[in-house]
Structures are given as C-alpha cells and as structure tokens.
Amino acid sequence: MGRIPHRPGSPWTGILLAASVLGSCLQPALAQTPVTIVITPRSPVVGGDVSLAPQPPPQNLVICSWFRSATATDGNSRILSYSPATSPPQTPGPAHTGRETLGPGCALNIAGLTLNDTGNYTVLIQTPGFLTIPVNLRVYEMLPRPTVMPDQTQVLENGTFTLMCNSSPSVDTVLWLRNSPTLAPSERLGLSPDNRTLTVLGVTWGDASAYQCVVGNPVSTNRSEPSTVTVTYGPQSARIDPPGPIGTALGSPLTLTCVADSVPAPSYRWGLNSTDTNETGCSLTFNPTTWAQQGTYECRAHNPVTNRTAWASVAVRVTRTDALRPGAPSGLSPWAVTGIVIGSLVGAALVGAGVYLLYARCQNETPKENGAPVLVYENLPPTAWVGSAAQPGNPPDPSPTYQPLQPRQPDVYEELKK
To answer: Which whole number is the average pLDDT over 316-321?
Structure first.
C-alpha cells in the first residue's frame, strides 16, 4: 500500500470521510468492548508532552486517523493518519503542526504543548469495523502572579468598592484574602460566578485592609501582591492637649496639640479669641510676651475628602512672670511679693517693740544701786522676862516664846566688801 495523499481534494479524503460516516453508523453494532481515550499525564503542562491513547488498544488495526475537532467529518481538521501496512505508516493532514506523531495502538503524541492545544480531539479507527471516539484535552500552565485592579483604592465610609483579579484563562479556582483569612460571600461581600470580581457594600472602618486574590489549577497556585483599600472617615470630634484651663508665664514657651481621628489626616487651623492666627499644623508653640496673648485658643481639624470639620478650644491665662527678683516665691505676682516684704518688716518692728517694753518693766521692779540700803533682818537672843519670877515646882509656861526681829547693822567688813 503506497503513501496516503493528504491533499484536500484527494480520493483518500473522501474515503476517510465515508469511513467516518459509516463508522459512526455502525459503531454500536461493531463495538464489542468500550474503548476510551487515556490522557497521560492527566494534567499536561505548557511546554511538556502528552499522549492520547485508545484503551484497550485496537486489535487488527487497518487504519486510524486523528482530528482536531469534536467530529471526524471535517477533512481540514485531520492531524495524522496511521496505517501499519503503508510506508511510511504516518500521513500528516491539514491540521498537522509538526509536533504530533502516532504510535502503536493509534496513540497520538503531542510535544511542546501550548495553551492552543487545549480543545476537542476525535480518533477514527478501522479494525476492520469503524469506531470514532471523542476526547477533550486541557493543557495547563504554571500560573503567573495575578494582579488586583485597582491595586489601591480610597473609598468613603458607607460607600462601595470593587476589586478584580486578573489572571490566566487556565485558572480553575480564585480565592480572595483580607489580611490572610479567606473571604466568603455575605450580605456585604459579593463574588462573581467565577470569583474573579469582589464587591464590598456599606464599607466600614474594618474593610480598610490589604486584599489579595489566589489563583490555582491542577499544576500550580499563585497569589497577587496586596492591594490596599483605605476607608476615609472623620473627624467626628477634636481635642486640645494639654486640657485647660492652662496657666502659663510671660516668656515661658507653651505648646498646644490638636488631636482628631480622621483618614486621611486632616488639615489644621488655629485661632485666638475667634480671630484667625494664620497658624497651621497639629501643634502650636508660642511664647507669650504680652498679656494680650492670653485667652481662648481654638483649633479646626478639616478632612478634605469627607468635607467634615471638628473644633476644639482651651483657655490660656498668664498667671506669673519669670522676671521676679531672685529668691521670690515662684508663682506669685509682684504685688503679692511686695505685700509679703512689707508684712515681714511690720512684724519685725512689732516684735522689737514688745521686747523693749518687757525689758523696761523688769527694770522698774528692781531696786536701784544708788538708793536706800536694803534692810536685812536678824534674830536676837531672848531677854529676861520682866515681871514675877516663876515659882519652883510650877510647870513652865506653855505659851510660845517670840524672838523679835530688828534691822542688822552692817559691820565694817561688809562695808568694805561693797
């Protein structure tokens, strides 16, 4: 048997088509054992090889042909024909790419697989009966890293945002992660049928996070870079640190800080007694040099995205000066210091006057040395009683005996001692 021509208009084309039609009509009557196509490997990869082999192998094979289609009726989709009785045994068809060969048992081998090799294939077998068997080939790729669009987004609180996972068509599974945990559909989280689109409704602060999509197929998995979603909100309120009222001193620096919870960070503006100071930034540092710098300080925190503004105020009063004399009590005004000094002087004068009066009084109660001599009294010995003498045998008179006192005259020695 000679080479089988494969020109589109050749007689072999008509013969094969007739055999295909006849085989499709006679297959139920002639097929004794079910024949299937076994794909090896089960998950072929781009760049690898694959074998499509009828199992069990056909016995008494006359000819078989492979078609790149779901049927064996289109001659232009024929890849190869194989006849063990011809030389060479293989005859390429219009759909042959140069990477296909036929082996024993009418197995189709494809080398250097591409994603375009994915599709329907059909084999026509004559043994001498006719049998057609279809099969679907799926070629997988090592998945590239997917991307999330948009890669960053800013959404208002209570708003909606949508993320899309862009990846290869050969992806079988798509999962969404938010800070690692897998997201499941809910009332606020919606997923498209293929999971490639994530929609979040009624955005809250907790939805501000990093989102990733994970794609997979039988041969690989891969995940995207994190996509950051920022939820804008606030400010609901503001405060000034330190809280008031605040007492400070002339010439003593003071820093006020305005605090407001807001995303993005708000802009700040400062005022004094309802007058704009043209000062910006969350902190205000000033050095009061005049009494006019005391009063009520206000800060305004404004979020340009949410268009919300929060206010806070604090009272600042100048209570002392740092220019006091050395040693003056800290925290006292000049008038208070003057009062303390005058009070101290008056107190010292009163104490001195009291001491002087007490001393003068003591001096008045002591005899002076140039006055009359101080009288000194002494006891004199008893003298004889004047009157009748005591009778013998009579008891003595029990009445007390008194000794008169009279002034003693100083002798010459005592006068000299003076």
So the answer is: 78
Domain-by-domain residue ranges, the chain? 11-137, 147-232, 238-321
- DSSP reduced 3-state for 172: coil
User: How far apart are alpha carbons 345 and 324 in whole angstroms?
Assistant: 20
Cα torsion 234, 238, 241, 247 to 10°: value is: 160
Question: What CATH class has 238-321?
Answer: mainly beta
Core vs surface per residue 313-347: b (16+ CB within 10 A) or e: ebebebbbeeebeeebeeebeeeeeeeeeeeeeee
Q: In CATH, what number does 147-232 get?
A: 2.60.40.10
User: How far apart are the C-alpha atoms of 73 and 56, rounded to whole Å?
Assistant: 24
What local confidence, expressed as pLDDT, does residue 32 receive?
57
The CATH homologous superfamily to which domain 11-137 belongs is Immunoglobulins (2.60.40.10)
CA-based angle 177:181:184, to the nearest 5? 70
Q: Do 23 and 126 form a contact (C-beta atoms < 8 A)?
A: yes
Q: What integer pLDDT is reported at residue 4 of this predicted model?
A: 37
Domain 11-137 shares a fold with domain 147-232: yes
Task: Find residue 153's DSSP bridge partners.
Answer: 229
Q: What is the pLDDT of residues 353-411, one digit of tens each?
A: 777 777 676 666 554 444 445 554 455 554 443 444 444 444 444 444 445 545 555 55
